[in-house]
Amino acid sequence: MWKHREEAPRSTSESGSVLPPLPPAVFPGEFDRTRGELPPVTDAAVSVGKSVVIKGELSGDEDLTIEGRVEGTIELRNHVLTIGSTGHVEAQVVAKSIVVLGHVTGNLTATEKVDIREEGSVEGDIMAPRVAIADGAEFRGSIDMQRKAPAPSMDQEVGSLTLDAKVPLPTMQDNGEMARA
Amino acid sequence: MVVTPRQVAAASPESVSRSTTLATFLTLLCARPAAEVVDLGSVVGGNITFLGDRIGCKIHVEDLYADLDRHARQDKLDQVAAFLTSRFSHLNESIDAILCWDVFDYLDQAAAYVLAEESMRMLRPGGILLAFFGGGGSSDLRYTRYCIVDESHLRHTLHAAACARRLVLQNRDILNLFGKLAVLDSILLKSGVRELLFQKPTN
After folding, report:
1. Cα distance between residue B104 and residue B194, in whole Å
2. How far is B203 from chain A (nearest CA, A)?
3. Which of A17, A135, A174, B201 is least surrounded, with the fewest CB atoms within 10 Å of its CB?
4. Per-residue model confidence (pLDDT) at position A99
5. Which residues partner with B16 through β-bridges?
């Protein structure tokens, strides 16, 4: 069978037949149903569906999207966790990156980034080197970005300060300009 | 028709203003290692990025505007003072800096007193507090969202609010309110807004 199909185009051109060559029954990398092979496992993202409720410890080695409800702990140390718009998480979460479009109550720890989108809501503490919070997102808690950048240069902005002295409050001049006494 | 904050923001012109008190605030903040900042304003991603990524602070977001909106919708603005007494879980003298923005304008006198007391309680010795006062009382149901553009500039955008500004504090009222703090810097803008930077004495 294999030999015949490989030879088919060559014999067609040699004989001058007008019939188009047969398409190969099995492309490289595909499975052959005729031989009872099972389809290969793909890398499609795993999702916790809307109606699914999980209570306990959730961990894994692949990206995960949660559209249902999870209570407990979630650990995806090398992968991306997405809490979808219908997702509701009450858990301590550790992941490489965390994207929030739904609701989260609990602390979020990411080794790369936490991204709270416009409709997202988080109540808990965030620890990640990068944090993005869109306008409209709800957040209550603390954010620790774990790294120190060099202090911005503000030599031009700050003059001398008398740290322990009370400075008189400013007054408005006749011309409407502000003035400090 | 319900007007969302996003729609109001889109319709409202943005403005950017220079703030030397912000510059001083950030300079002093940079001098405090592993500083912890309480932001009493609404959640602004740009501020979190600026303070967390560039300055390296730990930021506590305590959105009092959202609390005020909730109280206003429930017609419980008279209970804000009581609410504020237990609003903050931070330990005494555990915070290096507080960004109040103009939240005092939206409080009544009792609530303003409680918030000032709580702020002074939370601040570490040497800690700093930045507040804006005196946008003027009005029936305008909007609040200003302040976004740090750079070390000395703020972008202002207006967003829908459930309550209007209530309190216009005179200078002496402000000094009485923050009697335990020293005024480091104060600026009166042409708009009438006063920017004040306070510091808790180190004893």
Report:
1. 12
2. 10
3. A174
4. 97
5. B155
- Phi–psi pair at A92, nearest 5 degrees: -85, 125
Q: Which two tokens stand for residue A93?
A: 């979460």
Averaged pLDDT of chain B = 87
**Domain ranges (residues) in chain A:** 46-144
Is B5-199 in CATH node 3.40.50.150? yes
Distance (Å, whole) CA B159 – CA B164 = 12
Report the SS3 class of residue A109: strand
ipTM of model: 0.82
CA distance B167 to chain A (A): 18
Chain B stretch 8-47, residues whose beta carbon is closer than 8 A to a beta carbon of chain A: 9, 20, 23-24, 26-27, 30-31, 36, 43-45
Say whether pTM exceeds 0.90. no
Q: pLDDT tens across B4-51, in order? A: 444 444 445 678 888 999 999 999 999 998 899 999 988 899 999 899
The predicted pLDDT at position A35 comes to: 57
| Contact: B5, A136; criterion CB under 8 Å | yes
